[in-house]
Amino acid sequence: METQVKVDLTDFRLETRKWLEENCPKSMLEPITDANQLYWGGRNGEFSSKDQEIWFNRMLEKKWIVPYWESKYGGGGLNPKQNNILNQEMSRLGCRKPHINFGISMLGPALLKFASEEQKIYYLNQICKGEIRWVQGYSEPNAGSDLANLQTKAEDKGDHFLVTGSKVWTSYGDKGDFIFCLVRTSTESKHTGISFLLIDMNSEGISTRPIKLISGKSPFAETFFDSVKVPKKNLVGTLNDGWTIAKYLLTHERQMIGGIGDTDKKKTLSEVAIDSIGVTDKLLSNASIRSKIANLEMNEKVFELTIQRALDEHKAGNNSGAVSSFFKYYGTELAMQKEELRLEVNGFSSTEWTSEESNNGREARYFNRSKGHSIEGGTHEVQLNIIAKRVLGLPSK
Amino acid sequence: MALVINEEQKMLKSSAKELLDLKSPISHMRELRDDNYNQFDVDLWKEMVEMGWTALTIPEQYNGLNFGYVGLGQVLEEMGRKLTVSPMISTVLVSTTLISLSKNEVLKRKLFDEIMNGKKLCSLAHEESSHHNPNINSSIVSKNDEKFILNGKKRFVIDGSISDYLIISANNESSGTLELIILDSKSKGITFNNKVHMDSKNYSDISFNNVEFSNNDFLSSNDDGQKLLSKTIDIACIGLAAEMLGNIQQAFEMTMEYLKEREQFGVKIGSFQSLQHRSAIMFGEIELCKSIVLKALQAIDSDDENLPELASLAKSKLGLTSKLVTNEAVQMHGGIGMTDDSDIGFFLKKTRVTQRIFGDSNYHLDRLAKINNY
Lengths: 397, 374
Known about the structure:
The structure holds 2 protein chains of 2 kinds.
Chain A: H1 2-23, H2 50-61, H3 80-93, H4 102-114, H5 117-128, E1 134-137, E2 153-156, E3 160-171, E4 178-184, E5 194-200, E6 206-211, E7 220-231, E8 235-236, H6 242-258, H7 269-277, E9 279-280, E10 283-284, H8 287-315, H9 324-346, H10 362-370, H11 380-391
Parallel strand pairs in A: 1-4
Antiparallel strand pairs in A: 2-3, 3-7, 4-5, 5-8, 6-7, 9-10
Helix pairs in contact in A: 1-3, 4-5, 4-6, 6-9, 7-9, 8-9, 9-10, 9-11
Chain B: H1 7-23, H2 26-34, H3 42-50, H4 69-82, H5 88-101, H6 105-116, E1 122-125, E2 140-144, E3 147-158, E4 165-172, E5 178-184, E6 190-196, E7 202-213, H7 225-261, E8 263-264, E9 267-268, H8 273-301, H9 307-333, H10 344-354, H11 361-371
Helix pairs in contact in B: 1-4, 4-7, 5-6, 5-7, 7-8, 7-9, 7-10, 8-9, 9-10, 9-11
C-alpha cells in the first residue's frame, strides 16, 4: 500500500511539473513587484495583462483556483499530500498565484465548517470560479480590540433581516462584491447575541468610504449600512452563535498575517546591506547594523523552525503549545522589525516618498503600512492577553 | 526529519525525570553548595552510569548504547530543570564526543570503557583567555628526542578539579597545526588553580610546565585536530543549549506558579496585565528555543552539513532567552527573588555561566553573520 501511494505521488509530481511548465505563461513566473499584479477577481475583476488572464483561465479549467477543496464545491479535490506537491512545484517554478481572494483564505474555511450544504455548494463554487470578491466586516468604530462590543444590528423582519450600522477597517471594502459580516441579533448577552451574515454589497442602503493610511494608500474602507434588506438564507450557522464562527475565522486570519514576514524572498536583508553599506575585511562595514541583522535573522530562522515543529507536532497528534496567537504576535513583530531595520540599512533612499527611483516610495510606504501589522487581526496586546489567560492560566482580576 | 521526539526518546526523558526527581531535586544542588561547594556526588554518578547515561552517544561497536544526541539532549534538559551537579557535561557531552571523533582506536577502546563504567572522569582544557576562542595562542607541543613536551596555560576547565584525564589543545611547534592530547591529570608538571564560579561549580585554571608525554597520547592525527575540536565545540554548544532549555522552562514554570499564588492589593499579582504580557512573551520565546534545540540535536545525529550554523543559532538564542527568562523570574518574584532562601536565583546564576561556555550570544551572532557572508 505504502509503496503504491509513493509511486502515485511521484507520478503526480512529474505530471504537475510538466503541466505547470507547459501552461504557466513566462511573465507569470516573475516575482510580484506591485499589488496590481495580483488578480482579485469578482464582478468587476480586471486582468492587468493578457498573460494574467490566460494563467487564471487555465488554472480555472484545471480546477486549481482552490486545488484542495472537494470537487462538488468547485475545488480540485487534491489530498493534502498532492496539494503540498502542487505548492512545492509552483514555488519551485515561481508561478504566481492565479487568484487572491479573502473568500479562499478566510471565509472558505468558516463556510466548510459552519455553513449548510446548500450554502457550501452555492458560495464555494462561486469562490472557486473567482466570481465574487469577498470582504470582511468585523471591526466597528467602537469595537476594535473589544470586537464583541459590535453594534451593527440585524432586525428580524420575517423573511429578511434589516441591517443598520457601520463597519470600519474593511480591507478593500470599496472593491468588494459581498461582505461577510458580524451583526448583533440580540442585546441580551454580549457574546451570544452575534450572528454571521453574508451581504451583497450591491444591496440598497450600502455605501463605502476609503480610509487613507499613513502610507498614503487606502487598502481599507468604512462601510455603512442604512436599513439594508438581507435575505434570511444568508445567515451562516445558528442565530446568535456567530461569535463561534468569528473566533474560528480569526485564527485563520492570524495565521495569514503571521506569515507576512515570508513575502520578500528576492534578497536577504544582509545582502541588501552589503550593497548599500559595503564590507570591510569581509565584514559588513557598520558593526551595529551587522549585529542587528544577525539577531533578526536568528529569530527568523528559529521562528520558521517553530512553525515547522507545530505542524509536525500536529501531525504526530500532539499539542505543541505554540498557539495561533503567538504566531500572529511573533510573525508580525519580526516583519515590523525587519521594515524598521530595512530603513536603517538603506539610509537616505529609504525615506523617498514620490520619486521614480524609489518606485513611488514603495519601501517607505511599506514601512508605514507595516505599523498596522501589530494592530489588525487583533493587536499585539490582545494576542498576549489570550496567551496569558488561555495558555498560561493566569488569573483575571 | 519531523521536529518531534520519538517514543524511545520520550521514555528516556521520563526515566531521567524520575531519577532526578528522586535523587537530585534542586535542594540537592543547594546541599552540595553548602558542603563547601562539593562538585561530585559519587552515589548520584553511580545511578547515572547504571541508567546508561555515560554510554548514550557511544557507538555499539565500543559496547555503547548508540542512542544519539537527541537522547542525550533529553537527559541534559531534565538535568537543567533540577540544576543537577554532575560530570555529564565535561565527561559525556564534551570529552566523549571528542574521543568518538578521534581515529586513535587504542585510546578510544580504553577510554570509552573507563567512561562508560563510570571509573574515570574527563575534561577538555582549551580556553586561554576570558572569552571563548577556537584558536590557541599560548599552548605548545614540542618534541625532545622520543618524548613530547607540553607547555602552556589553560583557563575555565569544567570539572578540572575532579577529572582523571585532561584533553588539551595545543599547537605543534614544528608543524604549526593544532593537536589534541589526553593526559592523566596527576602528571608531573600540571598545577591547578580551582575557582568556584557564580553557579557554585568549579572551573580550573591549569598550568602545564614541561609536561612529558608519548606518541600514544595523541587523539589528533594527520592534522585533524582543528576539525575534531570545532565539531566537538559545535556539539557541546547544542548540548549546553539543551541544558539551558531545561533551566529556563523550570524557572518560567516556578514563576508562573508564584504569580498565581502571591497576592498584593488584594488580588493575585498574576492578574496584572503588565506581568501577563511579559509572561506571554516569555512563553513564546521558550517555544522558539524548543524548536532550535531539537533541530540542532537532530542535526548532530544526522551529520547535517549545517551543524555549525545550527549550533550557533541554538547557543545564541538560548543565551539571549535565558537572560530574559531568568531576569524576569527574579523580578517577578520581587524581594523573595533576591533572597538566598529562594531557589529562583540559582537559575540566574547557572545560566550566566553557561552562556559563556564555548561562546556567548555575541560570539555566536558574530559567527552566524560570518557563516552567512556578511
